[in-house]
Write a structure and sequence with these properties.
By secondary structure, the protein is mainly alpha-helical. The chain has one domain. Helix content is 66%, strand content 10%. The strands form two sheets. It has a two-stranded antiparallel ribbon. Strands 3-4 form a two-stranded antiparallel ribbon. Helix 1 packs antiparallel against helix 3. 3% of the residues are buried. The model has no long low-confidence stretch (mean pLDDT 91).
Length: 97
């Protein structure tokens, strides 16, 4: 992409990366642990769909804590990709002049 549309798309990509990065620290941290839309409390269990296995509140909370750094890294990678596209696009425009 070149021109204004390309720069806007790259800036949107950077903003989306920032939002992905911030999610586990904001909305993701504030939302309750759920089992099919029903809030869970410590000691509750949730039956997994299609199997006889269950998952406890503590297991779901641990899975959320383990996922947070992964989501944040993905956000940083998306931001870095957007910045890289923005920088290389500007360099190409500068070199073509």
């Amino acid at each position: 992409m070149t021109g204004t549309r390309g720069r806007v798309a790259q800036l949107v990509l950077i903003i989306v990366g920032m939002m992905i990065f911030a999610y586990p620290l904001t909305l993701g941290a504030a939302s309750p642990i759920n089992c099919r839309g029903v809030s869970m409390r410590p000691g509750d269990t949730c039956a997994k769909a299609g199997t006889s296995a269950t998952q406890s509140y503590e297991q779901r909370a641990q899975a959320r804590r383990n996922a947070a750094p992964v989501i944040m890294v993905v956000g940083v990678l998306v931001m870095a990709f957007g910045v890289t596209l923005l920088i290389t696009g500007r360099r190409r425009v500068a070199e073509s002049r």
